[in-house]
Amino acid sequence: MADIRAWLERYSLEKYHDVFASNAIELDVLATLTENDLVELGLNLGDRKRMMRAIEALRSDQGGVSHAENALTSSQIGPQAPPPTALEGVPERRYLTLVFVDLVGSTELSSHLDLEEYRSVLHDYQALCFDVVTRHQGHIAQFIGDGVVAYFGYPTVEENDAERAVAAGLEICGSIGRIKHGKGEVIGVRVGISSGEAVVDNHSTLGGLVVGEVPNLAARIQELADPGTVAISEHTKLLIGSNFRCEWKGKQSLKGFENPIGIWKVLSAEEPMLRFQARPGVQGSPFVNRVDEIATIKKHWQAALNGEGQAVMVSGEAGIGKSRLVEEATRGFEEQQYLRLGFQCSPNHERSAHFPVLSWISHMADFRRTDSDQRKLRKLRQLFQEWSEVPEDYLPLFAYAMSLPVEAEEDLLKLPFDRLKQQFQDAMVQTVAALARHRPVLLLFEDLHWIDPSTEEIIALLIERFRSMPVMIMCTFRPSYHPPWEGREGVVPLTISRLDRDHVHQMLDALLQSKQVTQTMKDRIANRTDGVPLFAEEMARMIQDGFFDQTDASAMQMQQALPSTLKELFWAMFDRLSTARDIVPVCAAIDRNILPAMVSSVSGHSYEATLRMLDELVEAQILVRRGVNMGGAYAFRHALIRDAAYDLMLPSRARAVHSRIAEVLDTSFSDLVGQNPELLAQHYARADMPKQARDAWRRAAVISGERFANEETIHHLDEALTENDKIAPSPDRDREEISLRKMLNVALSTRAFGSKEVLANLDRFRHLLDRSSASVTDAFLAVHVQFGAQLTLGDPMGALALCNYLEEVARRAENPTMEALAAHNIGMSNFMLGRLEVAISAFDRAIVLRGATGPDDLLNYHEADIYLVDQAMRCWAMALQSGDGGTFRAELAELAGRIGREPHDFTRCYGLNILATIYQILGDTGALLDMVNQALEISGQREFHYWDAWGRILHGWAQASEGHHAEGIAEIAAGIDAYVETGSTQIVLYAQTLLADAHLMAGEIAEGLKVIELVRAGEKSWSVRYQLPFTDRVEAALRNAQSEVAMK
Predict the structure, then answer these.
(1) CA angle, 14 as apex, 10 and 17 as ends, to 5°?
(2) Helix, strand, or coil here: 552?
(3) For 217-267, how does the pLDDT look when each residue is reduced to its tens digit (9 = 90+)?
(4) Which of 280-289, 321-330, 445-454, 920-929 has the lowest average pLDDT?
(5) Which residue(s) pair with 444 in the sheet?
(6) Where is the SAM domain (predicted)?
(7) What is the Cα 1005 distance to its own chain's centre?
(8) Which of 30-39, 531-540, 654-663, 709-718 has the lowest mean pLDDT?
(9) CA end-to-end distance (rounded Å), the chain
(10) How far is Cα 982 from Cα 754, in angstroms, rounded to an integer?
């Protein structure tokens, strides 16, 4: 029985061990238990559901047949059995959309055809309906003669049930013509659709019979539909919004219905890109003031319509009405045919790469949680077919970013990380540009204070590239966020202030029309809410609901009764709840995407009870339903309500809830975790479970890396290290830290070479290696990377001190690659120290050693192939010695050809910049420009910021040499600034000398000497000396020029 105990403990069901033991239930019979068996054993409803989910998982592990595998395929025509998400044997109240399809003229058809032919036609018709309904995630409930009944919203609830039902109806009408009978004539159908609450009788042998008004109404509406058309109820029309073109058929008297029913005829689906335009919703609070703000937004929209791209930044504190302002301002845009695309940032996804963008793609492609990867890929292909303007070449990038399998995946993986990221972001920008060629585009980015760095980069690209297109970008955020594009051309700041007293009174008058509230009371509300619209709205609503009784209370008592903060007000709101108060903190801990199944599993309430409580929270205006139907996910109506709900929990309670959420996510919501792995990590971290949090953050870092999101990868690894530090010291903890720091070292490669982050990570990495039994490769790599950081920081003496260790490790390992790199490092550090003969000798040795190994081996340790690089460095040292290059001109020309043919981009860019530097020393401006232009093209495409800055410096000097003094000086200065931003200093003194030389060419002697003073000051701080002869020559020329000017 030990095995059964362990299994029960795994699912927190160990309290039933004695019950199982007394009934001789062990693992061999566990998979055969049914829910009725669990009833006999005395399990309560919640635990029965938990036990059945666990047993289902066991069946899958054992290779048994699950409920899902019993689902009918398209070749099996018949009602579908509901999956285990339905409560077996328990009638349920559900909100669904029902589709009734009827064959036109079936009586005449049956009389004209023989029985076999009629059966064949009927079978083809049913097969077509089955295929279409299941492809739209519907459920075939019954075949009644020549009628077909389908449910959308049962047995599983999805967003946009009504939309999918109508789309299925249209497709059935459009496809039925393929079915012909013996005489070559086509058959036709009528489709009726209605939506609303109904009771699902799970006792039914039909696997979930829906009873109530909804099925009767759908059948009656079908009777009124013209052959080949879809007719829908008024309520269904409300749910589908503007996503379908419909024609009003008026109110019709229907048999069995007391009042006339409004009927709409569906003409066609609108273009898919309009799917998420605003739909009719609940009536909001009165909108007051904001006249100037709305005028500003409309003015810039008009400019966008004229082809002048605009970016409006709406800033305001929480609850001030940013989203409401955007909604009101854009309400009048409907007069123009435009495309509105919405992107929502999330507090739980601040480090989820491209989260709002990937969510938008998921919505546009209509992804479902239940979709397989292949199904999602098919939907994505369909979306690209509908986006006829968007090149299909982008599809592999979109699929890869969403972790979907794609044929080009191997080719994409060969691309460097930064190149992949650039291609995806370019594809996203070009997609919007393609859509904007046919109509104006409004891009809405909500809640940028929760934005992830990768999406932030995309917005910056959009702002930069859409200045001459009919596009307006609107962003909302709190004042704590400062957009990096602030101050750019075309970026308009729009700050929303609090309402003044008069406007608060105006708002209260509108909200409290039916409530007798004294002027004194209104004044106190205005004072207490301090001009925050959300606070005033919530206070008025609670008064409207009778929460405060002002009849028997004195003015002082009334004032004391009013909450002084929004949090107090929301807590008072929670206190008024009946049963639903219990799940409010659970919903707050889950945060944005509140799924009923998850709340049920975490809270222990039955699914049915959970739905009732969630509905109570919606009724209390604490939550809102996400999606157009009455099912699916829920979310807090405002972030401030969520914060107040979370604060209801004591820390110990919060940890327990997060622990349970993490467990449920890990076991039952693998699709969500796969898409956003940081969700699981966050819950483990908040549950104070450091080991699990560390491992989850590591998985999140790996996935972020695959999605070319470097900043997020670094963040996730930092979080993993933080969690690892919370674990008690041990060799295992050190091994985990070594692994994480190796990953972090790779991720930090895009940061400044000599940044404090890089050095701190390397210092800690080496410290761990020194006290552990690390591999020789790890030990060498750690010190080699630290050497590079020391060198780029302008400390060649410190870097040289590390070379003895590297040589010793390489000799012990008898590894020619390590030996070659050790020799290269000796050459580089001596070169920087100005010891040119020693450097040349070391480079010669490194070139020979590199010949004994291959480039692939070397690139495992170093970012470039030193075979070509060291030949170039050798020539640079010789140029500094001679100044004319007479002894190695031929060697230099041959080397330039080999570097130009080098396939490894970083090595080629490295070599080209060194060659350009040599030609600068030799005074060959033409050759310099030839080399540096090639290098700049590579560094621009691949975002090699270090080499791009180096190339700009040299290009600026060449410009000045050709007489373009002002342009050249400005480019050198900008290049130096960009170079310093990388954290490197090794060519700063050389670059400053080039700047001084450019001032000399321009005749700006005083400016040149000022720069030389900076160089001399830098020489006192850094031990870099290779540039000294050049600096001395330039200073001498400046002093001579100064003397000549003085003499004149």
Answers:
(1) 125
(2) coil
(3) 999 999 999 999 999 998 888 778 666 888 888 889 898 888 899 999 998
(4) 280-289
(5) 342, 474
(6) 1-61
(7) 53
(8) 531-540
(9) 106
(10) 8
Sign of the four-CA dihedral 699, 705, 710, 712? negative
Q: Where does residue 1007 rank: exposed (0-12), middle (13-18), buried (19+ CB within 10 A)?
A: middle
Report CA Rg, the chain: 35
**pLDDT value of residue 277:** 37
> Vertex 1006, ends 1000 and 1009: CA angle to 5°?
70
> How many Å apart are CA 689 and CA 439, to the nearest integer?
51
Q: Residue with structure tokens 């604490």? A: 622
256: left (phi over 0), alpha (psi -120 to 50) or beta: left
Quick one: how many helices (H) and strands (E) in the chain?
A: 48, 15
Spatial distance between the Cα atoms of 583 and 643, rounded to a whole number of angstroms: 14
- Hey, what amino acid is at 51? M
**Each residue's pLDDT tens digit, 537-591:** 766 666 666 555 444 444 444 444 445 555 666 666 676 677 788 889 999 999 8
Dmax (CA) of the chain? 120
Six-digit token string for 620: 């209390």
* Cβ(717)–Cβ(701) below 8 Å: yes
256: burial class by Cβ within 10 Å (0-12, 13-18, 19+)?
exposed
The distance from CA 1009 to its chain's CA centroid, rounded to whole angstroms, is 51
Residue 239's Cβ-side half-sphere holds a number of Cα atoms within 13 Å equal to 30
Residue 624: strand, helix, or coil: strand
Beta strand ranges found along 594-633 (DSSP E): 623-625
State the Cα–Cα distance between residues 716 and 678, nearest whole angstrom: 8
Please list the helix, strand and coil fractions of the chain in percent, rounded to the nearest 5, in that order. Answer: 60, 10, 30
Query: What sections of 903-944 are H helices per DSSP?
Result: 905-922, 925-942
Given a cut of 50, is residue 72 above it in pLDDT?
no
Q: How many CB atoms lie within 10 A of CB 763?
A: 13
Tell me the residue type at 145.
G
Choice between 560 and 758, residue whose per-residue pLDDT is larger: 758
CA distance 446 to 360: 12
Which residue type is seen at 709?
A: A
The per-residue pLDDT for range 495-508, each reduced to its tens digit, is 887 767 676 667 77
Which pair of tokens denotes residue 533? 């619209």
Determine contact, residues 315/416, Cβ cutoff 8 Å.
Answer: no
**How is residue 806 written in tokens?**
């590297």
Chain-wide mean pLDDT for the chain?
A: 80
Q: Please, is 920 exposed, middle or buried when counting C-beta atoms within 10 Å of its C-beta (0-12, 13-18, 19+)?
A: buried
Phi and psi at 195, nearest 5°, equal: -135, 150
762, two tokens: 């390397």
Cα within 13 Å of Cα(988), Cβ side: 25
Q: Is the peptide bond before 155 cis (omega within 30 degrees of 0)?
A: yes
The residue ranges of DSSP E strands in 608-660, in sequence order, are 623-625, 634-636
- 40 by DSSP, 3-state: which? helix
Tell me if 67 sits within 8 A of 28, measured CB to CB.
Answer: no
User: What is the C-alpha to C-alpha distance for residues 641 and 350, in angstroms, rounded to an integer?
Assistant: 20
Closest CA to 126 of 143, 138, 150: 143
Give the integer Cα–Cα distance in Å for 353 and 421: 10
pLDDT level of residue 335 (50, 70, 90 thresholds) = low
How many Å apart are CA 845 and CA 868, to the nearest integer?
13
Q: Is the dihedral of CA 1039, 1042, 1046, 1048 positive or negative?
A: positive
Question: Percentage of residues in the chain with pLDDT exceeding 70?
Answer: 79
* CA–CA dist 160, 168 (Å, integer): 12
Those residues whose C-beta lies under 8 Å from the C-beta of residue 11, and which sit 6 or more positions away, are 50, 51, 54
Per residue in 133-166, is it b (16+ CB within 10 Å) or e — as a string?
bbebbbbbbbbeebbbbbbbbbbbbbbbbbbbbb
